[in-house]
Structure formats: C-alpha cells, structure tokens
Amino acid sequence: MENEENKVEEKQPEQVETSVEEKKVEAPVEEPKVEEKPAEKKVPQGEIIEIEKLDGDARPLQEEIEEKRVALVADYKKSRKMSNISMAVVVVAVIGAMVLLLVNATWSKITGYSLGGAALVGLIVFSMLTKNKFPSKSREYIRFVTTKIDQHIYNNTEFQDVKVNLSDKYTITELGLDRIYNNLVDIGSRNIVKGRYLGDGFSCGELALYTTKSEGKKTMKAVSFIGKHLELQNTLHFEGRYILVFKGEKPTDLPTDIEDLVELHNDENFVVYGIEGSDYSKDIPAKYISALKKIKVAGNLLNLNVVLWAGHTGVYLSYDDPVVSLPFDKPFEAEAQYAFKDHLLAVLDAERLINK
Asked: Which of 84, 95, 243, 306 is the most exposed place for a label (fewest CB within 10 A)?
C-alpha cells in the first residue's frame, strides 16, 4: 500500500485505511473571486517507459500476475525461513560460546571465542548476502505488475503515445490547485500515465491525499482520498469552479474545499457545488453530466468527484484495495482493474462531449 506520472497541458500531485475528515478552510472568504486555472506542469527527467500494445498471443492478466505473485511470496517465505534458521544457529552458537567461556580451561576458552567469532562473522556475511536480495525482487515485481496492468488498461486503439515517467510524482502544490480537498499535509503517488485518447491529451495516476485530524490533544494524519486521478483539458468558459459529486451507497472521500461554494443541486446520488449565483446548467453541457451519471458508483468504485475549471478538468475516482493496492498476500483481482478501465473510458468519452 505504498508504493510510483501526470498532467498534460495544464496544472497539477500505498496502502492506507480509508477515512475522510472534512475541514473548513482556515482563511475566511469575504466574497467569491475568480480563481486562476491550474498552471502548466513541468515533466521531471527520469526513466520513461512506453506502454506497448498487447499482441495476439498475450497471456491473461490474471494468469501473468498471479504467477509472479505466487513466486514472490514463495521466495519471501523461503528468505524468512532461512533468516530464522540462521538466527537460531547464531543464538545456539553464542550460548555455546558463553558456556565454554565459563569453563576454567584454556581449550574451552579458545573454543568459546572461536565459536562466538564464527557466529558473528557468519551473521554478518549472511546479512550482506541477503540484504538487498528481496527488496530488489520486490521492486522488479512492482514494476512488472504496474507495467502489465497498464498494458491491459491502455490496450485500446483509441490510446496513443502512452508513457510512464518513473520519476514523475504529484506535489501538494499541484493538487491543491484543483481545490477539492483542503488542508493537505502529504500525498503519495505512483504510476502516472500520460498519453492521448483519440487525439486528446490526458494523464492518469494513482494517488493518496492526506490531511490532519484532531483526537483530543493529538493531531493525526488521515486519508482524504485514495484512488485514481485524471487531468484533462476542456473548452468550457465560466468563472470560478464547479465540483460534481457522484456518490455511491456509502459516500467516501467527499470534497472538503467547498467553503467558498454553495450547493446548486443535491439529490440522493448527485451534488453540484459552485460559486453563488452561477448556473451550472448553462455552463456545463447536460450531455456531459448524463454521460458521467452512467458510471455505476458501486463495487470497487466508492465515489467519483469531478472539478471543472475553464480549460481544466480534474477527476478523482475513489477505489478500494483491489484497484489501488499491489497484490502480495492476497490473490490478484483482474476484474477490478477491468472495471477501472471501463470507468476510465467513460470519463474520457464524456470529456470529449465538452470539447466539441
């Protein structure tokens, strides 16, 4: 649950327990003011991986990842077993050395010191040989899993030039410009994919946003959002911003940076926030909202938040573990990833409705 690129032309940010803390913005808002749209993001230098299309002989995603996961778990258990055996041998050797040293004889003292020294040297050598073995295999596994998932997610012919820059990360400043969650204190991000969908640029990455909460005299870090984040461009024209909330059965990761906004619409599963006096029905095409409403917020998808600025769209899809956590101690669930792919395509298709 912790750990690995994101934004196209406009602004912009392993495993955690989902909890949402709503907080008011610290500074009072005297009057609604027009916010500047997010600024362009510079792409950091780093290793760039091109996500290639799958060929006709590609193995099923479930099969490939489960094979790697099972092998990694077996290797981990083997390493743990060897470590436990080695530690037991060292403990026995040290105890034996101490017993021999208590014997008042030259041969026993020599043997005791030799045994203790051999145990220490053996422990050091074993530690040096195994220190980086499993972390290295874990990194290889993470890279393999994320690359394979990306290949299956972005395998449609509508996607072009899909790449991942391994050094690309979100920042608090970049994500703060979206103005959905306030009081951000930390973020985690990985696997930020950038490319084009039917010619339109997009970026999509895995993201966790953290705020603080108070429990008595203690201040603790809490999760405000965990899931997938998309950055897109739109051709809308209006002042301020709108936040669209599509709720599931148990709404989670709801927006908190809304003190300067008012509810313009609120029904059981759909809420619209905007600046007072704005008319979202004129500023946002009805067909766009209708297209997003077709996304079923259920199962692994817990919530869908969309922030709209003139020229910029930020999409926050909240997911549970099967989508955002790399499989290790639990079997991989390919169906959850394919569900995300359906949601991604629906969001990208909806965006095209406001760019015509």
From this structure: 84
